[in-house]
Request: fold
Amino acid sequence: MSKARAPHEWNIAPRTETPTIVSMQVAFTPAEIAAIVQPKSTRGTTTEAIRGIAPLEAGGPGDLSFLGNAKYRSQVAATRASVVLLPVDYAGQPGPNQLFLIVDQPSVALAQICARIEQMLWPKPAPGVHPTAFVGPGARIAATATVGPLCVVESGAVVGERSHLQAQVFVGREARIGDDCWLMPGAIVAAECVLKNRVRLQPGVVVGSDGFGYEFVAGRHEKVPQVGVVVLENDVEIGANSTLDRARFSRTVVGEGTKIDNLVQVAHNVIIGRHCILCALVGISGSTVLEDYVIVGGQAGVAGHLTIGRAAKIGGQSAVTHSVKPNEYVVGYNALPSMIEQRIRALRQRLPDLFKRVDAIEAQMDRLKKSSAP
Amino acid sequence: MSKARAPHEWNIAPRTETPTIVSMQVAFTPAEIAAIVQPKSTRGTTTEAIRGIAPLEAGGPGDLSFLGNAKYRSQVAATRASVVLLPVDYAGQPGPNQLFLIVDQPSVALAQICARIEQMLWPKPAPGVHPTAFVGPGARIAATATVGPLCVVESGAVVGERSHLQAQVFVGREARIGDDCWLMPGAIVAAECVLKNRVRLQPGVVVGSDGFGYEFVAGRHEKVPQVGVVVLENDVEIGANSTLDRARFSRTVVGEGTKIDNLVQVAHNVIIGRHCILCALVGISGSTVLEDYVIVGGQAGVAGHLTIGRAAKIGGQSAVTHSVKPNEYVVGYNALPSMIEQRIRALRQRLPDLFKRVDAIEAQMDRLKKSSAP
Amino acid sequence: MSKARAPHEWNIAPRTETPTIVSMQVAFTPAEIAAIVQPKSTRGTTTEAIRGIAPLEAGGPGDLSFLGNAKYRSQVAATRASVVLLPVDYAGQPGPNQLFLIVDQPSVALAQICARIEQMLWPKPAPGVHPTAFVGPGARIAATATVGPLCVVESGAVVGERSHLQAQVFVGREARIGDDCWLMPGAIVAAECVLKNRVRLQPGVVVGSDGFGYEFVAGRHEKVPQVGVVVLENDVEIGANSTLDRARFSRTVVGEGTKIDNLVQVAHNVIIGRHCILCALVGISGSTVLEDYVIVGGQAGVAGHLTIGRAAKIGGQSAVTHSVKPNEYVVGYNALPSMIEQRIRALRQRLPDLFKRVDAIEAQMDRLKKSSAP
Reply:
């Protein structure tokens, strides 16, 4: 059997890049790059200013490149990039007018540089409430916060220090947005929901839609009012057009540092732990608990009222109908432990052969019975 | 085999609650609670005002609790909640300063109380068109309706009595919104679509996007114009960021009382019957018909041009590629009747064993043939 | 085995129509219809003005009908529609006051007529920027473009000739919208992203949300800044509430003429070729390449860093974890070539029988061994 890519990797960020050279629209001196990444050591020098980031094979003068994945190691010697981020175990020497920066993790160092670029490219808007925004009575907007054009902040809501409601954002009655949050265009935070600090909502996110709860009475589904809230802890990020339902009563929670991709559904009363990863198009059903460090692959579904243990992994497109133990890795439709599921899938491909073998055995058996008959 | 939770239950509302005590932000006297739920009988009395709702084990003075699921029956005797909703077959007696309210269905009674809380917590806005909203020429807004901040109502559209467009809602040209509808922030109703009465759109819903129809001509996909509409009948509720496409011509329909969860796709010309339930991330392909009382589990998909019979159930993540008979319960990828599918899934886990058994039989067969050879 | 509908057809436009007669709200003379479809030949005449479109069996005087699918051929003789679009191999003659228009592809001819109706029904708005819209400094709006109510166009953005931002649309800083684009209500194009010409965004589309990329450092997921863009080439259409992530750096691309349905997720650095079809609820993971003419069925998922060859087809709800060759048709969970997958699925249904057969063989084997024992 070929070695399949683990489905839980779906949609997690690629560590390498397609070979397109990109202008950074800003320039750094090699010394500025070094100041950002704080290398363990350096080899060589360059006089080029850095204006682009490129994969090793595509890099040229003025580009920064990096060895993010060991399989590209052989490309380092040939790269013409001016500055190259390399791991400590890389032994080679730079070419002329080329600087090697030796760091613990080149991809982390690259992320630090990108973060700096992002800071420069995405200028912090001036604080204040845009004249086209509507802020209801009794809402409190921090003096350092920005409420952009055509936003709505309903009465009694709070927006914390340096938080940024970009444009056309909705913050409902009595909702609380902490400090340093960024709510991108069209993001919606319904009444009474809570975002702590440094929460980032991508465009179109809905926080605090009603949970999906009905009682079936006399042939009709009568709505069970959903009077709880959603709480997003510090450093949570939610992807575009994802939806998080408010609790029936009490709270739906996303724990500190958890990152949720696009088009994910989190039902009412779900409790998601800290530092989890939920890939795109995942659905978590009502009242299920994900403990810390859980990873859920793209398009997977988890039934309601389950507990997914700490650091468990759920493969892409899996359907989880039972609770999962800590550190377990489950895969498949009615998900099984990955080792078992992979085994069964392999055998499933041998089913046509198995049917033929049973046919052959039955035929031989018939012959044997006849020949052994008196 | 363990008894799996039926996949169709995914994402349907939990009937029980995580043990977090919630303040109701309002208070009721025990007499007010009794007036809401109209108990068959009562036992005991309490002088506490009710200010919270809590599960049995977490309830204390001032809390309302309830026995919603028989498996928690043993917790009733120990609960310290001041008021407890109980079924008629519960025989125990209340403690001191405790009131038991005996009702037909405690969870329905709880829903009635929550509905009252919701009414109190979500104040009806004052009627009128907010000065920041834009209403096109010829649009007709009922005098009792509310059009909130930064909404758009295009020309010729109609908004009925007491309907509430909360904020940043879009209602397109010639669309018609009936009475007592609630369109939450960012909801979109495109041109000419129709919402009857008491329709509720959660945030970000799109009603009336174009159906996905192209003719493949000379190597290109040429758009087939979608000139039909979407009609949502009375008491329909649509979940956050779900999308319902307008018909190619004629109508896409969602029947009375049907409830659709978040991130659901309903394609053009689909006809959904009355009182159906569609859980999150479901996709219904073009021209398929769901008869009344159909339930579709989370992340299931139904191919186009099929008929799903009255009260049929489709398990979560199933792929339905054939029509389904009334009352049938189908499950799986190329969905089969649930009984058959569950059987096959169980046998699938025994495949490794089956392969070993066949290997052993073949080996024995070889030995038998040799030993019986002359 | 019954012949299953190919899953890749899910959610692709139906070619036939439910039997509801629809008023076109406009009228055409038979001569005007003929001028639009340019028939190869005609049979008969009618004096009726055409005011509706109807299926063959439902058509009456004043209706246009068509034979779009050979299985309805027998209905042509009985239809009372005044004008009927028919293929060249249809031999029958019209009734009294009835006109047959013989065309190469009746469904294409119908599409041409619908396109004309659409042009008439959806009036082009007057050019200009609505007074309630906000346009940032340095944004350039073509004189023939329309920026509707409550739109935001940030600084430095460009909107091309005749493009239409309908209402509540967001176009971010330095983004570029080409000519003849239509951005429907609530569509979002984030900073620096590029739409070429004739691009159509359905309501709620998000172009340019951040890619989902984190480095796991010291027990936390640290964000990898996503500083690339999204580029949509000419004639791309994106369905309601779909999301397309900007690249880590460089570009996420959707090629010319590709059509994407509702609630689809396209991750960062994905490159989609020309004239592809992606049905609803599909997820394409990071850095994967789809070559031209690829078709992806509804709810299918494709893992990251793969290449899907030209004109390959992926069945609905399939999980693709390996690259796919040009023209290949793959289906299933860990998708296999369709022929193999269909075979295995059929055998899977015979598993209960196979287990019984092996039980019987083992029993016989035991008897044979005993009888052959000395």
Observations:
- Residues 1-23 of chain B have pLDDT under 50 and may be disordered.
- The first strand of chain B starts at residue 22 and ends at 28.
